[in-house]
Amino acid sequence: MSPHYSSGRIRVLTFLHSFAPGGVERVALRLVRHWRAMGVDAPLFLGREDGAMRDEFADVAYEMPRQPRRHQGGWETLWMILTLPAAIRRLRPDVLFVAGSTYTIVAVAMTLLLGRRCPPIVVKVSNDLARRDLNPLGRFFWRAWLRIQARCARSWVVMDEAMLPELPPVMAQRGHVVHDPAICAMQLLPERAQRPAGPRRFVAIGRLAPQKHFALMLRAFARAVQPGETLTIFGDGAERPMLEALAASLGIADRVRFAGHVADAPAHLHDYDVLLMSSRYEGVPAVVIEALAAGLAVVSTDCGAGLRSLLSQGRFGMIVPQNEALLAEAIRTAPCATPDRPALLASLRRFTIERSAQDYLALFVAAAEAHAARRPMPVEQEVPA
Q1: How far apart are CA 280 and CA 267, in angstroms?
Q2: What is the full DSSP assignment across 207-272?
Q3: pTM: predicted TM-score of the whole model, two decimal places
Q4: Which of the listed residues 91, 158, 331, 358 has the most CB atoms within 10 Å of its CB?
């Protein structure tokens, strides 16, 4: 007879490389904190303990392997593959939670290294799977990699119904929707406080990395900026020196502020009017959810089905192709608030952590019970008379 699981009797292991800032990591840490508050046994395994979000989540306890002599920042995925199996054997989780698409290679490795001793895996798909930004050859290899990944997990979780058709057939058979828990219910305020009069204040949040395509944003902003308008960019990354030089060459260095990483950047959104996003691809970006909840208007490039669904195909924000002139025109004409706030709030209730944390736990319980049911029953030895 297989064991009976419940949300209070299940151990869910989440693993992350570090406290380095990222949407996947922030949501995962918030989920771990919330599950623990619910009484769930939710251990957290980190490859290393550095990162800009460490102080923000100082209350979240974690386990960490003995550190190598050489800092593993440049080979963190290999380090996780080498150290996670021992943690799984020691902690004996009922479920392994893969917090985002960047961690699926670790999940594949765990199934190969641990075999039947690997707990059932639940993967959150955090990025657009269609990857139309790739050339045909790149998409061919991308689809091949998806087919390899597909067999490693019990459940594949997408963050919006619009992403389900993008799942390869093998994933789709085990596909589920759990909306991205980017906000809490208290953030869903009926109205935004009256904005002060004056030029519009634009803001962007994200890693300064190729995926986010901040260079496109800066070029479009330079074409559209009106007197007195500013753009503040929260986030850091390897592209920062190049982007700062680009802003200077475009003549907008005095209009663009690179604020770097700040703890809980979304908490600063109320100081701005319009969120800009220029990503090449995304899943359901948490920062857009947070901006909409804060009452900002949104201008974004078309970076995936999840983004289009989140903005209700343009009803709750402006969506433009990856084109500098079109993005500039959208910036030029962007309003200072999202229209039809009652309908927007009704849509955003899907993305509260109170709701999504429960939905994840239901999936974890189902995965653990199905896994236990497939285990061979121990053979009872006959006791001699």
Answers
A1: 25
A2: -SSGGG-HHHHHHHHHHHPPTT-EEEEEB--TTHHHHHHHHHHTT-TTTEEEEE--TTGGGGGGG-
A3: 0.82
A4: 158
Rounded to whole angstroms, the Cα distance separating 276 from 291 reads: 10
Residue-wise pLDDT for 193-231, tens only, equals 677 778 999 999 999 999 999 999 999 999 999 999 999
Sheet containing strand 44-46, edge to edge, reads: 44-46, 12-16, 95-98, 121-124, 155-158, 175-177
Cβ(363)–Cβ(154) below 8 Å: no
pLDDT at 40: 95
Cα 380 to the center of its chain, rounded Å: 46
Shared-domain flag, residues 151 and 46: yes
Q: Cα(359)–Cα(361) distance, rounded to whole angstroms?
A: 5
Does some domain include residue 341? yes
Q: What is the CATH number of the domain that holds 307?
A: 3.40.50.2000
The CA distance from 118 to 60, in Å, is: 25
What pLDDT, in 10s, does the model give residues 329-375? 999 999 887 778 889 999 999 999 999 999 999 999 999 998 888 76
Q: Does 123 fall in a domain?
A: yes
d(CA 121, CA 114): 12
Beta strands in the chain (DSSP E): 12-16, 44-46, 95-98, 121-124, 155-158, 175-177, 201-205, 230-234, 256-260, 274-277, 297-301, 318-320
CA angle centred on 73, ends 67 and 79, rounded to 5°: 55
Print the domain residue range for 169. Answer: 12-181+352-372
User: Partners of 72 in the beta sheet?
Assistant: none
Assigned token pair, 342:
């009652």
Residue 3 lies in a domain: no
